[in-house]
Write a sequence for this structure.
């Protein structure tokens, strides 16, 4: 079955370190998204991509970057981790070709702690 | 700017009670609306969605939602909740291919 996987599932790092969170989907979806989930804020969009070589900033993109070199992967990089980036990160994908493809499918999440 | 509001942040119900979670949105164009559920320790799953047509949408596990355009609302309902419905529920608005999520409602069902 098609799925989205995220790794690692848990990560503890120190302030100032570079961290990369992996997201891999086997749905063959063009659209991929990164969200962070924080208490009281729900899910907030960090970055998104509509296809290979396409990346766009979401509402909370400062301090994060993404790259899209193939359809399956959208890694999220924290250039210099800050304590404010302690959060749970979710990757999602969707297919722009109508119908049920409009639904976003979510990965299991990565819990990141920045000390 | 588009936004989604969920006014009930925490809801506690006893089993068999009826549930209604509020969701209001602000967007003047054609809307696609979703309810997602996140069970403890799990990722978000789609409960139901509205694209067009019948404003009463039925989803999985006995949930339904009604789209009322004049009220900019998409409230989630279930006539009789179960302990297993304990979860966090998110309303979302789709604009182009981006989703805007509400802040979520944490539902606790007491056995």
């Amino acid at each position: 079955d098609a799925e989205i996987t995220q790794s690692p599932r848990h990560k503890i790092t120190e302030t100032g370190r570079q961290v990369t969170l992996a997201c891999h989907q086997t749905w063959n979806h063009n659209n991929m998204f990164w969200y962070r989930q924080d208490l009281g804020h729900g899910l907030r969009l960090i970055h998104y991509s509509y296809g290979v070589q396409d990346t766009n900033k979401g509402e909370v993109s400062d301090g994060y970057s993404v790259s899209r070199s193939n359809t399956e992967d959208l890694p999220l990089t924290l250039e210099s981790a800050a304590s404010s980036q302690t959060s749970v990160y979710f990757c999602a994908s969707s297919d722009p070709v109508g119908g049920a493809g409009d639904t976003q499918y979510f990965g299991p999440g990565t819990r990141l702690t920045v000390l | 700017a588009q936004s989604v509001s969920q006014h009930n942040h925490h809801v506690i119900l006893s089993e068999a009670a009826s549930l209604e979670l509020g969701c209001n949105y602000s967007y003047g164009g054609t809307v696609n609306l979703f309810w997602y559920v996140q069970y403890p320790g799990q990722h978000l799953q789609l409960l139901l969605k509205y694209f067009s047509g019948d404003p009463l949408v039925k989803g999985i596990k006995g949930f339904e939602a009604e789209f009322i355009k004049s009220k900019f609302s998409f409230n989630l309902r279930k006539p009789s909740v179960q302990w297993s419905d304990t979860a966090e529920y998110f309303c979302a608005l789709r604009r182009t291919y981006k989703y805007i999520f509400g802040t979520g409602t944490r539902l606790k069902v007491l056995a």
About this structure: The interface with chain B takes residues 31, 33, 35, 40-45, 48, 50, 58, 90, 92, 94, 96, 102-104, 106-109 of chain A (CB under 8 Å). The first strand of chain A starts at residue 4 and ends at 7.
